[in-house]
Specification:
Order of helices and strands: EHEEEEHEEHH
Helix content: 10-25%
Strand content: 25-35%
Bound molecules: zinc ion
Number of domains: 1
Strand order of the largest sheet: 2-3-4-5-6
Oligomer: single chain
Length: 173
C-alpha cells in the first residue's frame, strides 16, 4: 500500500478508495497475513477511514505465561481532520490542550495519508488488554505435589504421639 496523495482522493469517483489488504505488516508479527480492506473516503474537510481485517497472532497469557494463538478481528473507524498545522489560530499560544484535542488526528489537506501506518496503529489498538489463553485459565500450575519425606523432627513428633496413643490405649476406661 503506497501513501495516498490526499487531493487525488477528492478526484476519485465517490471520493472513495477501497484497498484490499492481504499482506504481512512489518513490525506487527502475525502467523497469517492481515486480510481485509481499508476504505478511505474524502469528506472535504476530513478523511473518513474504516478497516475490517483479520489475522492470527501469537500472544502470551497473562496468567500462565504460555503462548497461544489469537484470532484478531479488526473493525475500526476513524475521522482524520484535514487542516494545516498552522491553521489553528485559536490554539496559538495555548500551552494546555485538552485530552480530547490530543486524541484528534489531523493531516494537511495537500499531504499524504499512509494506510500502512494507520492499519498498523489500528491493529495495535485492537490487541486485547487482557491476554488470556482461556477465560478459565488457572494460571501457573505448580508441579504435581510429590509426597515429601517427613522431616526428622516430624518423625520424632509422630513417634511421641504414637507412644502417647499406646499409653492411652492401656489406661483403663
Ligand atoms: Zn493461560
Amino acid at each position: 500500500m503506497e501513501p495516498l496523495h490526499i487531493p487525488q482522493l477528492a478526484n476519485r469517483q465517490d471520493r472513495t478508495l477501497e484497498i484490499i489488504v492481504d499482506t504481512l505488516i512489518p513490525e506487527f508479527e502475525t502467523l497469517t497475513p492481515v486480510r481485509g480492506k481499508v476504505i478511505v473516503k474524502h469528506g472535504g474537510t476530513f478523511l473518513d477511514l474504516s478497516a475490517q481485517a483479520e489475522t492470527i497472532i501469537t500472544l502470551k497469557c497473562d496468567r500462565c505465561l504460555q503462548q497461544y494463538n489469537h484470532r484478531l478481528v479488526l473493525d475500526a473507524t476513524e475521522i482524520i481532520w484535514l487542516e494545516e498545522p498552522d491553521e489553528e489560530p485559536d490554539r496559538k499560544g495555548m500551552e494546555i490542550r485538552t485530552d480530547l484535542e490530543e486524541l484528534v488526528d489531523s493531516l494537511p489537506p495537500d499531504g499524504h495519508f499512509d494506510p500502512n501506518v494507520w492499519l498498523y496503529e489500528q491493529l495495535c489498538l485492537s490487541l486485547p488488554l487482557r491476554q488470556l489463553c482461556d477465560l478459565d485459565c488457572a494460571g501457573i500450575i505448580p508441579p504435581a505435589e510429590v509426597d515429601p519425606e517427613p522431616s526428622e523432627a516430624q518423625q520424632l513428633l509422630d513417634s511421641r504421639w504414637g507412644i502417647l496413643g499406646t499409653i492411652k490405649d492401656r489406661l483403663p476406661e
